[in-house]
Amino acid sequence: MSDDLREALQRVQEGRLQAADALRQNLDALRSDACSQAFVRDFAASALACAEAADAQRRAGLPAPALAGLAISVKDLFDVAGFPTTAGSRVLAGAAPAAVDCPAVARLRRAGAALIGHTNMTEFAYSGLGLNPHHGTPLNPATRRIDGLARIPGGSSSGAAVSVAAGAAWAALGSDTGGSIRIPAALQGLVGFKNTARLTPTEGTVPLSPALDTACAITRSVRDAVLLHEILADRQVKPSARPLRARRLAVVKEIFQDGLDAATAAAFERSLAALAQAGAQIETISLPPLAGLVSYRVSSVAIEAWAWHKPLLSAREAEYDPRVARRIREGEAISGAEYLERLAARRAFIAAMEAQLRGFDAVLSPTVPVVAPLLQPLLDSDTDYVAANALLLRNTSIVNALDGCAISLPCQGADELPVGLMLWSTALQDDTVLDLALQVEAILTKAGH
Description:
alpha/beta; Amidase signature (AS) enzymes; 12% strand
């Protein structure tokens, strides 16, 4: 397969690749061992029909749609007409098929995407690890190629990332509430872009936290991230064309670099060195507003999740993943007054952070502090599960609380376990972050990352 979606599109448009042939290769990958347990259902027949229609349209001399009948996977919390939406859960297994596509899926379909299937996920998107006791946990295909060990895929968009890493899809529609796009992208050597939440519609999805949920995509390259964002947000990215030496980048002292493992620390330092050598202005700064953040994030997600799940938990809690049910029930004890206090605290946090970051184009940090953990200890121990989940969500969730935008791109060396470099900023700085990421990706590629 081609390296990324843009390259595949060029081959299709030039007649060197048939979309239907590419789709059959995607389906072969979907059914391979590398993609085992990554999908809860496939849309093989409709996807192939879409690819064949795109080929026929091109042969007739008609303009090809933007995605030209190439395969895109869809996380199992987005409505796809004709299929149930089950959010990785047995609780919704009897749900009726969706009558219409949700807006994000409709935009992909209008762009000519061959929607290949609903991908597996953490039940109800409530964990950054990607474990699922109902459908099984897909193993991380990127790390298996390096050390052969069974490591987690990251979550909650676990199957979404695996579908791209294993070659079943060129890109994956997913969601990011506290890091659910960027975590699996980082752990699997992919690109994950979390846009400013308000730019993409989340209607027609199973919610986790409406205040934080973001519809966005996992891709193989930054230029693919730009393409998918333009489709999902129905807007054009406008790069500034400013050179890297004219950029002002920050590295934060607090929190983000605590507890890094050796591989992540080394890859992050090499990345900073490569960017500095290319002319980037990098300043180490302190962000005092970070001190009171954690309590806000936990409380807001739990109470919003509890509001949606209360009737289901009352009737069918035994069918939930017990770890997910426990986390949702944390919201039961949070009063309405406390919730409003947390929302006010978030507004104050956003204002303080925006003031602190004014003048910087973006902040650089490790996406997650460690490489993909081994799966078995997290299956065996609730204590290990809770600790790993908190660690993997720590850096990424700060951006969600900020109502910001962020992109994770691979920064590891050849034959090293995947490590993500996160570029992030405040709300509506999406074009700046994407523009910078294109430059950073080119520098890291040249440096052998």
